[in-house]
Amino acid sequence: MTSTALKGPSSPVLEVRNIVKTFGGVTALNDVSLDLLPGEVLCLAGENGCGKSTLIKIISGAEKPDSGEIIVDGNTYSSMDPTDAIKSGIQVIYQDFSLFPNLTVAENIILTSAVADRRRLYSGRAARPAAQAIVDELGLHLDLDADVERLSVADKQLTAICRALVSDARVLIMDEPTTALTHTEVDRLFVIVERLRSRGVGLIFVSHKLDEVLKISQRVAILRSGKNVVTSPASMLDPRAIALHMTGQELDETRHVSELDAQSEIVLELEGLGLRGAYEDVSFTLRRGEILGVTGLLGSGRTEIAEALFGVVPHDSGVVKVNGTPVRLHSINDAIDAGIGYVPEDRLTQGLFMDKSIADNIIAGSPNEHTTRFGTLDLRAVRETIQGLFARLRVKAPNVQAPVRSLSGGNAQRVVLAKWLARRPRILMLNGPTVGVDIGSKAEILGILRAEAAAGMGVIVISDDAPELVACCHRVLVVRHGRVVEILEGDDVAVDTIREKVAA
Amino acid sequence: MSGASLAIPDRLRLLRGANNEGVLAVVLLALIVAMSIANPAFFTLPTAFSILRSSIVPLIFALGVLMVIISGGIDVSFAAIAVFAAYTTVRALQSGTPDLGLIGAFALALLIGASLGVINGFLIAKFRLPTLIVTLGTQGIFKGALLTYVGSRYIADLPTSMAHVSTTNLFEVSTPTGSAYLHVLVVPAVLLAMGLAWVLRSTMFGRSIYAIGGDVEAARRAGIRVMRTQVAVYVIAGTMAAAGGMIYVIMGRSASPQILVGSELDIIAAVVLGGASIFGGRGSVLGTALGVILVQVIYNSLILAGVPSAWQRTAVGVLLIIGVGIQAVASRRSSRASVIDETHQKQEVPA
Questions:
Q1: A183 vs B202: CB contact, 8 Å cut-off?
Q2: Which residues, other chains included, contact A138 with Cβ-Cβ below 8 Å and sequence gap of 6+?
Q3: Range of the domain at B75
Q4: In which domain, by residue range, is A112 found?
Q5: Considering the domain boundaries, does residue B7 fall inside one?
Q6: β-bridge mates for residue A488, sequence order
Q7: Do A83 and B211 count as a contact with CB atoms less than 8 A apart?
Q8: Which member of B203, B222, B343 has the closest CB to residue A120?
Q9: Contact A100 B345 (CB under 8 A)
């Protein structure tokens, strides 16, 4: 990291040339070439399954390419192994950070480089100053003696960044770095990224969040079906163009809502719902066939309201009526009996059995809906439901026996949806239905919701993604400090209005 | 937070130890004080030396088990390995082989222990099988092979070199209540404990064991040679077991394939009581040593109190559940606390 690294067109710190990789006849990467300059942020964008992860694995040495070469600082490799990669200054920060939860921050920072140096002895006393140095250099506040499992997500990420830099990273690859962070944490991360750039580190960001990507990166490389379709300066692209390159088709992100019959019955009605310390006096209605958006800042109470309707954290005042009859929602079972379904925010831990097959996951929530008159499982009905939903939601997988763990985010989300649709609920609530899902899948998931609503379901979408709400919701509720402050209807359902009301 | 002025909570954290060693020490001390008040015969040098003497073999076994537990596994085959190695060695020395001397005998036993450890390690690391199942299986195999191929006879006369050690004491102290002897084999146990403590704290191998116990996948990505480390862990555990077995045979002055049956529970209980996490990644030699001594003190107390020996196993069982229960409750509480912290932070953020 000399000053020359920052001036003018310098030589790339990393180049990959003509990489080809196939998995059992399926081409994952087809002649992909990329370069990364020192002090540059390159965004690697693409839909799930386009080959991004495979490319990263090849660069980090976890996979070997069929052909092509990797050039780091002028040294050419036909393939890498993890130690080669680390030694030549390539560091990957995975989505799960790959930290050791049982070790302290200091040791996490030091251990990997000590392994790479093939050291035999370890000294905790010597490790601490080295860790401290890198933490200070980045101007961070991390408790070096705390166990990593006690840190917040953002601090874990910072620990992972420190660990990468301590082994003198030249290339830092970050997989979905902003997904689990709040807005302020993202801003703080971007400040760190700027500091890294000024040190001459080249960064590759893999991200779904296009507006963030455009803010931080200098260039964007877009992969589609294993091919690098475009590499262009970020200033030349807008989210729409990126989406076009990623999917190869013009995506319809415009408002698209069905005509709602004013006479259609009210399926859900809330009257003065409240829970001390979370929300108060929440009243609204949901009609058959309607998609209702609920938005607000994190901590505004929007998730708590949804959890009250699903009986997770029961409300302590007010009335909920389903189809006009007051219902008691003291447990999840109460909610399910009332015909309410809920797709939670964190589908990985709350919505899916990761190691089970797609089929098992789809049917997991509805064994009682598929019984013969003797009370045993009606296997034919089960098979029909599974096949029907698998086809209808267009889950991309070889067959229904594939484990859910093997699916991409968008497809996993479809399986969660399928699980609820198998129960045929009257009211379906979805919390962040497209978080961590690529744009192509996002458009399709919104399409599925529109279709279900048109078929007579009442749908509630809880989201902070304004364009998504505008695209599919008939009405949008804005929640602030535990109160419904606004119900937007008709032409008021617009991105700018929503953003303004949320932040006010 | 500068090093000189530690806040009081930090001091408490330090005193408590990373694995609750401090708490364990207090419990042990309280038990000793209580027993001494209840029965003055307890608080004597002979009692202390006899507890130390009875802790030798359990400590050595526990050290091996500790290492396996830190790496995220569990080993129930160590008793079988101990018997196999010790009994086979005694048989070999008896049946005409020239007397190899004490060192030779130990070398042979350790070699056998290490080889059996290789089998465990290979199965676990190569095929990524559950450690409990593998060691449960090999335990049966080792016992069966011992009875079939080596013999099942009770051997009452050890080779002279070994028999000699059994009556050697490190030193002898005369007290009003009688002479107290400290057995010489306390020395290897203490050396092994110190050695393992050093390996775990100050070698990359030791830290890799913690790392693997914390997150295997992260360890692989960090470039740690997981398979090699795991095999080494089971080889060392096997060797430790063999050493423990030899010392047991020497101290008992007889060898039989039936010894040490059922001792697995006590050892694993002691290690878990000593603060090692059954989920891997946590544990220390100090805690394990305290755990072993605690179990022995409880045995001794129960005998002095005239409790039937049948109840001793019950006591250890209860202790094990309490130990694990405290761990589980504590970790649940801390995770709940961190959730509250996080939501709190989120609310402060104006976004």
A1: no
A2: A158, A161, A162, A165, A192, A195
A3: 19-342
A4: 3-247
A5: no
A6: A476
A7: no
A8: B203
A9: no
